[in-house]
Amino acid sequence: MTSPQSDGHFDVLWPRSPLQVKGKTLAPRLDSLEGKTVAQLWDFLFRGDKVFEALEEGLKARFPGVKFLNWKEFGNTHGADERKILAELPQRLKSLGVDAVISGMGC
Fold it and tell me: For the whole model, what pTM was predicted?
């Protein structure tokens, strides 16, 4: 606030705090899905079952050698077992030879 004797300057504060999390380098993008294994992860919201079906159909037409691990293999990524499922996910993906993940849907 300014006082009646103010020269028009105001004290202000920046509303954002300093960044607490450092950015990470993203994994390199795949050149193609041909011959790759793609996992489908779903939070059981919206209509992921229908969306993944359409995605799989379209991607198989474009990349005939792509293999999919259905969302049913992984369980609900936003349900009662969410913490356990997500904690085990990196090792599970590695053991299954997964090259890429499609995760959805949210609302």
Answer: 0.72
**Helix, strand, coil percentages, rounded to 5, for the chain:** 30, 15, 55
In the chain, how many H helices and how many E strands? Answer: 2, 3
- CA angle, residues 19, 86, 21, in degrees to nearest 5: 10
Q: Any long-range contacts for 60-63 (C-beta under 8 Å, 24+ apart)?
A: 62/33, 63/32, 63/33, 63/34, 63/36
CB 34 within 8 A of CB 66: yes
pLDDT in tens, 64-82: 999 999 998 888 888 888 8
